[in-house]
TrEMBL record:
The keyword Cytoplasm does not apply. It holds the Pfam family HSP70. The keyword Ribonucleoprotein does not apply. PANTHER family: HEAT SHOCK PROTEIN 70KDA. PROSITE patterns: HSP70_3. It comes from Kingdonia uniflora. It comes from the Eukaryota. SUPFAM superfamilies: Actin-like ATPase domain, Heat shock protein 70kD (HSP70), peptide-binding domain. One of its GO terms (molecular function) is ATP-dependent protein folding chaperone. Keywords: ATP-binding, Nucleotide-binding. The lineage of its organism: Eukaryota, Viridiplantae, Streptophyta, Embryophyta, Tracheophyta. This is Heat shock protein 70.
Length: 230
């Protein structure tokens, strides 16, 4: 039902059936479809990997919007565990808290490494962004050096590195937590300190090239096989 008050006491009332509504707003729906596809592309996510579709906001009650999104994501039903209108309020409050610095819904990821030389006591760790299998296929973000690795044959010390990104996903503020475990006692021999990386921002690749020439493609550390298998 469309009900519009005009000037001079005039009023327009019209019952708009669903096919007419879809036809009138066809360009809007096409724009919605384009935005969903752009979001998936920017996130590097295939629709087959999407586990749930959550529709929020008043427009999620429009049948065409719901069917359009479900079709694009190849799903039969949307997630019904929350009210679409309440979800908008919650997300706005969360975004405000993040912007004000009161809340940081960050993300941590752990990797395990070991040494490549006998009695190696320090290591240079270089952090790259990308999904390429080779170093030169990715973008270098920064680097840091850890010292105090317990002296032992290569491949024995275990070094844990936590990469902690804040909710804004600004990679220049990437923080790294590093420590080492003694191979004899399995106790922590290095404090797990927060390290602020030196960043490389010029994007010309000279730093990565210099590292490879000095240390070789493996650099100082190898990824532990047991962590790769987990």
């Amino acid at each position: 039902m469309i009900d519009v008050d005009l000037e001079n006491g005039l009023r327009i009332c019209k019952v708009l059936r669903r096919p007419e509504f879809v036809e009138v707003n066809q360009k809007v729906f096409e724009k919605c479809e384009s935005l969903v596809e752009q979001c998936a592309f920017a996130a590097r996510v295939d629709v087959e990997d999407i586990s749930d579709v959550i529709l929020v906001g008043g427009c999620s009650n429009i049948p065409k919007v719901k069917s359009l999104v479900l079709k694009l994501c190849k799903k039969d039903e949307a997630y019904m565990g929350m009210d679409p209108l309440e979800a908008v309020v919650y997300s706005a409050a969360l975004e405000g808290a993040v912007d004000s610095g009161e809340y940081d819904n960050g993300n941590k990821e752990r990797d395990g490494f070991t040494t490549t030389r006998n009695n190696q006591t320090e290591a240079l760790i270089v952090v790259y962004e990308g999904e390429g299998k080779k170093v030169d296929e990715n973008h270098i973000l920064g680097y840091f050096k850890i010292m105090g690795i317990p002296s032992a044959p290569k491949g024995i010390p275990e070094i844990s590195v936590w990469m902690d990104l804040d909710a804004s996903n600004v990679l220049r503020v990437l923080r790294v937590f590093a420590g080492a475990i003694s191979p004899q006692t399995h106790q922590r021999v290095m404090p797990f300190l927060e390290v602020r990386m030196s960043t490389v921002d010029d994007g010309h690749g000279w730093f990565a090239e210099a590292l490879v020439k000095m240390y070789g493609s493996a650099l100082d550390l190898s990824i532990l096989q047991k962590n790769m298998q987990q």
